[in-house]
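Hello,

Following up on my earlier ticket. Below are the two sequence lines again, exactly as submitted.
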Amino acid sequence: MIPTVGGGAPGIEILDLTKWYGHQVAVDHLNLTVERGEIFGFLGPNGAGKTTTMRMLLGLVRPTSGNARILGLDIASDLPAVLRRTGAIIETPTFYPYLSGRDNLRAMARLTRTPYGRVSEMLELVDLASAASKRFRTYSLGMKQRLAVGAALLHRPDLLILDEPANGLDPAGIVAMRDLMRRLKEAGHTVLISSHVLHEVEQICDRIAIMTRGRIVVQGRVADLLGNDDMLEVRVERIADAEQILRVVPWISSLVREGDCLVVGAPEGRATEITRILAENGLYVSGVRPRELSLEHYFLDIVKDN
Amino acid sequence: MTALLSFEWLKLEKWWMPRAVVALISALTLGASCVLGANVVERGDLLLPRGWLAALSFSSIFAPFFWPLLGASWAGNEYGWGTIRSILSRRPNRLEHALGALAVLLAAVALGILAVLVAGTIAGVLIALVSGNAILTAGVWSPTFVSTVLAGFVTAWFVSAFYLVVSYAAATLTRSAAVGVGVGLGGTLAQYIVRSILFGLGGHWRDIAGYFPIVYANSVITRVVGPQLIPGTALATSRAYEPSVGQSIEALAIYGAICIAITLVAVRVRDVTA
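Thanks for your patience. The regenerated structure is below:
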């Protein structure tokens, strides 16, 4: 059972956050707001600065300049209060290899003054009750990841910072993780999630930001980012003839052949006109639909451009 | 702080290494007591109740070879396993964490020395039975003897704690259990070698050799328990040039405080990138 969380200040406000390691900038004047109750995807290639940003939010790494507020609390001055309300997984799950899953959660419960009863609840939630007595070192990567999720939720945080939570999970584990994220969202939790499993991000995140070289290059609602490119996929026989006909239409901004269809640069409202033009030239369209960019394509385009 | 201590204790009681270290020191104390007890001249020091003082001496002698293993592993593994970020992303007070971990380790050292006393007791009984002596030597008990046992216990703890602190600091500073163990064990070995060389050179080199931490750590337990042992025996004999109890305690406290101070500064200011 995941308790409901109240509203208030934004979940996360990052204000001009910067981190230099020697002469190399890892995070460069980052500004970002994650609203309360949303699932926010934090994307970027390896080395983009995502993990460093998350570490700064958790007080593990000190910013060179800038600041951040979590649930309205300043991370520089109110870090203990911030962490009492935040659960996190940073990179790989880290636990004591000689302790069992249950003892690891008990240790974390002692650290956060959480009643032991919550340990069993979490083990059930992440489906590790039957393996709770096994030592952590014997766990598979998926089990370790699930234990990390249980540990992150143990002290009933309002906000979760999850760095690659799906790493090592099998397909069933990924589906379970997606389901858990949705339940967390329904209960009003705020989640900042970094992941390379873009298909999952696309399905569970309200908004995303893509970061490269320490800077955010694009951010917004997933639907807006993927749906604004005014492309139509046109399926037609004699595709070479169709391409020749459409190439001279002035309002078509681009024309690319992809496999057995043409990708036409035109808004959805022009679909009828395209069909008519082709029909007048004896070409009959078997299908027209707005092109739905996958987040994966979008991400790769953005990263390539930057 | 109690939450942190409770957390550290749970980890400690479930880990094999503290038990292994205590078992090894206890076994070596038992063995050394039995070997020394075979010698008629030395036997009197191994029979109870003097056997407790002998056990405390042995615990100090073996301390530099075992407690660094625990101190360095405890601190270094937090970085090696990455668990330091699990801790500090829940309880961000880094000084509290470093001191809490150290406090629990020092409590473990005290328990370890109690176990060594038990080993000394077993050895004393065995030696008495084998040699046909009384299990408790008559005429030894006195308020001075009891206070010497207590002072010996504190001294043995202090010396063991010193070695543990040095390796804990080294492992924390380098974020590595292996380096901590290396510094803890290798440092002691290096001191023995360099000290011998300087001592042999004489003059002011010999004076410098007198300030090495091992000089203070080695001599202090003999200075404390020696007066209650049988004069002339190996465990009772101090050399005139060795530092006094006060000098040794002060010196070890200063060296230990420097290690702790450097550790606290490092954990406070640096980023957790483990």
